[in-house]
Design goal:
Order of helices and strands: EHHHEEEHEHEE
Number of helices: 5
Pfam families: Acetyltransf_7
Organism: Dielma fastidiosa
Largest sheet: 7 strands, mixed
CATH class: Alpha Beta
Helix content: 25-40%
Strand content: 25-35%
Keywords: Acyltransferase, Transferase
CATH topology: Aminopeptidase
GO molecular function, one term: acyltransferase activity, transferring groups other than amino-acyl groups
CATH architecture: 3-Layer(aba) Sandwich
Mean pLDDT: 94
Radius of gyration: 15 Å
Oligomer: single chain
Shape: globular
Protein name: Putative acetyltransferase
Length: 143
């Protein structure tokens, strides 16, 4: 089930955020993610967040700022089960276009977004991590 984020979800969401970033971005030090933990936790209240819930347990979430996907994260125990696609499909229904940034070295996420009809708009260096990232865009097809 996809639903809106509640403040009581913060602990579970942040656990998924940290675990997913550490696993997907092994090319960035763990200290980097841990040092941003509190900052991200504070930003949750100002973002538009949807969570995926399975049997009362949060198994993934997507964060939005207008048409920008700030992050899409799925608990490692639920990966490959369509949770990420379900979250992405939900925000696709609500928007005519979407933008996101993904690290070039995060091949799994890059392939996922390309499979979901996102195209690379440009390549740039992420100022915070120093890593190269792609800016990607999806546009809803007109019927």
């Amino acid at each position: 089930m996809i639903r809106l984020y509640r403040n009581t979800d913060q602990k579970a969401v942040m656990s998924i955020w940290l675990q997913a970033n550490l696993k997907a971005h092994s090319f960035i030090s763990a200290d980097y993610w841990q040092s941003h933990y509190e900052e991200v936790a504070k930003m949750l209240s100002s973002a538009e967040l949807l969570v995926a819930e399975n049997d009362g347990r949060i198994c993934g979430f997507i964060g939005m700022y207008n048409e920008m996907i700030a992050g899409l994260f799925v608990d490692e125990h639920y990966r490959g089960k369509g949770i990420g696609k379900m979250l992405l499909d939900t925000v696709k229904q609500m928007n005519s276009q979407l933008h996101l940034q993904v690290y070039k070295k995060n091949k799994q996420a890059l392939h996922f977004y390309q499979r979901e009809s996102f195209s690379i708009e440009k390549e740039q260096q992420d100022a915070a991590s120093g890593e190269i990232e792609y800016v990607m865009k999806w546009v809803k097809k007109k019927l």
